[in-house]
Specification:
The chain contains eight helices and seven strands. The protein is α/β, with parallel strands linked by helices and 218 residues long. The structure holds adenosine monophosphate.
């Protein structure tokens, strides 16, 4: 059986950074639906063409596009794999859909970890975020700077500010988070499958807390 651990938290809470770090140290797979969609956009696939206008506006991409991606990812994962879902589910409909989608892909949801960060800290984090447009690696000017300013450590490309990390879009993404995504936390809480961690510390501290929460889950 494959296992899914859902990473929850506001934009800027550090889901991607923590999921990538803990995946690297445990052999789990980091599945970022945002990164998959950005890759689909840059390759100009049908899903990418459909997703682009929603993403540029900081809006949610239609559920069906995501469901297809999720099942393909699960089917492609080897038996026994643990997958860290970063960015899915993003609303209640997706949360309800996940268990049947998981079943289709030979997986089950082991639990959810919510990264808690106060709103002013989220805004500071989002403004400093930099992403490699080529390989998708993520950085932060303060907390996770690249070795050479403005250049990707992994592939050397020039780092960029994602369109959806621009100030006007950030405000919109936080609103969507409050209205559509925050209820997903209650969904896992009611199911008794939620672990909350204080994600206000450094990337290393957060990764450590995630690892501890994970040990009680998978
Ligand atoms: P992220 O990198 O997780 O912040 O995602 C970037 C963008 O991709 C979001 O602002 C959405 O437009 C889109 N996206 C990612 N995951 C989902 C999802 N589960 N449902 C709908 N849209 C998504």
């Amino acid at each position: 059986m494959k296992k899914i651990v859902v990473f929850l938290g506001a934009p800027g809470a550090g889901k991607g950074t923590a999921a990538a770090a803990v995946a690297a140290s445990t052999g789990a797979r980091h599945v970022s639906t945002g990164a998959m969609l950005r890759d689909a956009v840059s390759r100009g696939t049908p899903a990418g063409l459909e997703a682009k206008s929603y993403m540029d506006a900081g809006a949610l991409v239609p559920d069906e596009v995501l469901y297809k991606m999720v099942v393909e990812t699960l089917v492609g994962a080897p038996d026994g794999a643990t997958l860290f879902f970063d960015g899915f589910p993003r609303n209640l409909a997706q949360a309800e859909a996940l268990a049947p989608l998981a079943k289709e892909g030979g997986a089950e949801v082991a639990g959810a970890i919510c990264l808690d960060v106060a709103k002013d800290a989220l805004l500071a984090r989002l403004g400093g975020r930099r992403t490699c447009p080529k390989c998708g690696a993520g950085y932060h000017v303060l907390s996770l700077p690249p070795k050479v300013e403005g250049k990707c450590d992994v592939c050397g490309s020039d780092l960029a500010v994602r369109d959806d990390d621009k100030p006007e879009t950030i405000a919109h993404r936080l609103e969507i988070y409050e209205s559509a995504t925050a209820p997903v936390i209650g969904f896992y809480e009611k199911a008794g499958a939620l672990r909350r961690i204080d994600a206000s510390g450094s990337a290393a501290e957060v990764a450590d807390l995630v690892l501890k929460a994970l040990k009680e889950m998978v």
